[in-house]
Amino acid sequence: MKNKIIWLLISMVLVQESKTSCAEWKQPETNCVNDFANQTNSLAKYDNPEKLVQEKLDVFDKRMEDIRRMIELALLSQTEQNIKRNVDFLESLQNVEHQLEKIKVQEAQWDHNLDNHNNLTKASSKKVNSDCIAKLLNIEQLLKEKFEEQEEKLKQKLEIQNKITKSLWQKQIDNIKPRIDSMVKSDSLKIIQEKFETLQKAMETQISNSITQFESIKNQMQDNVENFRKIGLKYYYIEQSENLSWYGSFHKCLTLGGHLVSITNLSEFNAITTGLQPHKHYWMDVNDLGTEGLYLSAATGLQATYLNWHTDNPGHNITNHCGELRFHENKHLMYISDCNDKELFICEFYYQ
After folding, report:
1. Is CATH 3.10.100.10 the classification given to domain 228-349?
2. Fewest C-beta in 10 Å: which of 23, 26, 99, 295?
């Protein structure tokens, strides 16, 4: 009975081992069933079950050893492949490191070249600055010496001039002093005072007459203002029939209480020329009678502030010195003509 129980247990173990072995090695189910039948038949042949179990265990251990070796071989193969892959990777890594080293060497070379360039630039800049500073100091020294020289010369001239002036004043005082002393002792001082009072009265009378004459002229000019009309911001008299020379026109404007028109800007120019007759020319105050090419205003005596010439004018003609508004190409523009030509004229009122 005991042997049957042991045999049954061994059979169960073998069955389980057989199933496990078949599952691991992926054998077909029919092979596993056949193995189990063969093993069962083998057990029946043995009278000693323990021996049978030992034999099966030895077979199982051998099979496990084979499996272990197969796994080790597989692992060894996989390890060799990994090592090979790692070697390739290491070679690539070494190539990258080699390239990085080259790049570092190139960067170091560039930095070195840049430092050399900067040093050369700084040295050149320092040299240029040093030269400039030296030149400036030299110029400053020369100017200082020149100034001191001029100052010394001027000081010497002033001292000489002061001495001469002082000497002249002293001579004048020496010449006048005897006369003053004699005048004080005599009645000459009283005579001089009387003459001074007479002269003062005459001057007062002359000033009074001048004021009266000025008021008369002013009133006359105010009466003449009726002959002027407002154009823009000023009053003008535009002669429409009488033709005079520039000099005659100048005098005529004075008798009317004004002067030949003095145009000072474009706005005045446009306002005046708009009302002029076409194909007529009008004298104005611009002239270069004093200096050839220097055009002054007869009203102010100063250089004209506004000029608007015709094309190719003014020319250099020794006989043409007086300015006019000449009609040409359907518009009036400034032109230099012979002062003796007979033209119309424009007067500007003195008091605006």
Report:
1. yes
2. 26
